[in-house]
Structures are given as structure tokens and as C-alpha cells.
Design goal:
3-stranded antiparallel sheet, 13 strands, binds adenosine-5'-diphosphate, binds magnesium ion, binds zinc ion
Length: about 200
Amino acid sequence: MIRNQPSCGGWIEAVCGPMFSGKSEELIRRLRRAEIAGQAVMIAKPRIDDRYDIGHVVSHSGHRIRAVGVDDPGAIVRMAAGCHVVGIDEVQFFGGEVVDALVALADGGMRVIAAGLDLDFRGEPFGPMPQLLARAELVDKLQAVCLCCGGPATRTQRLVDGVPAPFDGATIQVGALDAYEARCRGCFEQGDAHSWGEQTSFAGL
Ligand code: ADP
Ligand code: MG
Ligand code: ZN
């Protein structure tokens, strides 16, 4: 496939896929190359959980790049002033207004690279991602390795005590001890509704 980037003006590149598909690695790779080319790069991620390294985007394989944790997408626009390239990881955790913010940056001439989960643990479109993917010039849908069959994984399985998490659990949980694994369509299991026990504490946003 031949890919041409606009020779004038900005654009949006979206990188999506399930957990472990290499979104953060790919984001870091593109941002490093921009820095090698001498471009001014700003990197942001949502500050939803400060248990993790809020000062960096970190991939599951240990790659990292500095990042600013932000609460609202307006902060991304303010901090991006004067940059050539803006990278955002975990973009699915922002509200719908993140799409307007990233479109404004691209309209203003910036290269915007946004990485995020396209589907939540139920296999449903995640927050602002459908709107973002529709408005992006370039979309890459990455795949992980399915932990059940070894095939290409497009979904993120949430497991609680080894069984599929309840369908009506919170989409975003901070502090819960759930496990996640990459699975293909055939191996993905939908959890039942209202099946969690009293002992499980949810801290959904
Ligand atoms: P994402 O940001 O999409 O969650 P990362 O870029 O953080 O993904 O991590 C990708 C890395 O995760 C891979 O290079 C590999 O080292 C590791 N990994 C762990 N489990 C899997 C899996 N099931 N499929 C593919 N890669 C995996
Ligand atoms: Mg990631
Ligand atoms: Zn599978």
C-alpha cells in the first residue's frame, strides 16, 4: 500500500487495536523519528491513574518516552503551541471533546498521532474512538497475538478471577485487580450481566 502524507497542512494518524497490539510502541517509534528529524514534539496522555508512570508513555515491552499527563483535552491544545508533532496515548479515556481538540490541532497545521483502544472489554466501540477514526487521514488497526489460539487478536478480554468480566461492569476501572489478555474474535468470551460477587470492589470512572 502506498501512503502519502499531505505536503501542506496538518493531519491525524490514528493507531488502534486491542491491548498488547503494539500501539504504544508504534506511537513511540513515530515520535522518536520526528525528533530525529529535528521536529518539536509534545506527548500527552490522560491522567486517569497516577499509579503508573505519569511522566512517560510506557509500552508493555518497556519502551518509553516522556509525556505530560493531562485531565482535559483543552490542555493538549494549549501545550501543543509551537510544536510540529503532537502524540497522544490512551486517547480512548478522554471524552468526546478530544476529537474536536485533535481536529483543531490538525487544522492548525500539526501532525497529530493518536493511539488508543478501538474496542472496550465488551467488544464495543470505545468512547471517542469511532469519531476519531472517521476523521483521521491515516488509520492503522494493529493486532496482538491471541493468548488462546495464537491467531491475530483484535479484542481485549477482561478476566476477573479467571472468568470473563461481567458485561455491565464499568468500562474504565482504576484500582481493580482484573487481568486483561488479547484474543481473536473466535476466542473472545462475552461476560454475563450482573454476575459479579459482593467481594469485588469496582472503582469505575
Ligand atoms: P499496546 O499499547 O497496544 O497495549 P504495547 O506497545 O504496550 O501495546 O506492547 C506491545 C508489546 O507487548 C509487544 O511488542 C510484546 O512485547 C508484548 N506482548 C505481550 N503480550 C502480547 C500479545 N498477546 N500479543 C502481542 N504482543 C504482546
Ligand atoms: Mg499502550
Ligand atoms: Zn484465538
